[in-house]
Amino acid sequence: MNRYSLFTIGLLAWCLGQAPMPAIAATFDFFQSSASQNDLANSILPVDTAFEFLGFVQGERLQLLWRVEPGHYLYRSRLKVAGPSGELVAVQFPEAEPYHDEYFGEVLIYREDLALDVPIGPDLTKAEAGSKPFLIEYQGCAEAGYCYPPQKRWVELD
Fold this sequence. Notes:
Radius of gyration: 24 Å
Shape: globular
Number of helices: 5
Number of domains: 2
Oligomer: single chain
CATH class of the largest domain: Mainly Beta
Distance between the termini: 51 Å
Order of helices and strands: HHHHEEEEEEEHEEEE
CATH architecture of the largest domain: Sandwich
């Protein structure tokens, strides 16, 4: 047995000897009932479920697709595309919805699925790009009050 499990057993034995069993049971009931009542914690989806992302190169175009779960949104200003050399790629965004965010103020968001068709030009070939991928960055939130950390995904030139 390692020293942590011996410590845990010793602590538990001490607690059982010091406190009446109903007090310990009530403590465990408190933590269990609190966890099940926390609606926000129970409603948070994994980021790849909330914003399912697919990116691929088709000919001279970079195709970027997000499936946005209901009750979630993407920030337009947090969507960025960088080329294999690290340069920002100009993206033509569709119209976005104005939204007042309590943290970022007035912003534009996408609540629906989002598809971006980004021209990458004929001069960007596999030979020139080597194995360097496109870097896609995005960030979104849940309307329940939770914002996901900024995300980075890479799209290869296959």
